[in-house]
Specification:
The protein is mainly β. It has one domain (about 5-145): Neuraminidase (6 Propeller). It contains no helices and 14 strands. Strand 9 (about 90-95) and strand 10 form a beta hairpin.
Length: about 160
Amino acid sequence: MIFIYNFSEKSTRRFTNSIGIDTEAEWHPESNKIFFTSDRSGNPHIYSKLLSKGKSKRLTFDGTYNADANISPDGKFLSLVHNGGNGHKIGIYSIDDKYLKIISKRGRLDEAPSFAPNNKMVLFASKKLNKGILVATSNDGRIRKEIELVGEDVREPIWSH
């Protein structure tokens, strides 16, 4: 379940109501919608719901696993973790076109994608020789830079805004 807490009114409102697990809420930049992961269909997928009304709408249908959505600053794309049968990859979902494009091809344990403030890059965690590394890639996946931190194991990176 996802709840919304109103700080000015000091009140809580239940936002989702399903028999599945609803988690990983992400606000749209215009604050009119929330994206979240739910397993209400049997497997984790990305859903959206307007704050004002309506039912939750399932966005992802490809693969058996789509989770950990991160909205682009312009509100047009979601970066997410996708599994289509060959490991966890990073995908970019176009909200308008309803199209999912996989942008990480090498890893099998890619996770925690985060858009750059300019919408052009995505940062995520991956594994190389059983060590967590940081990967920066263009939002189309053509440019990729792996960053290994000496003595560190990277997990859950995020761009600063």
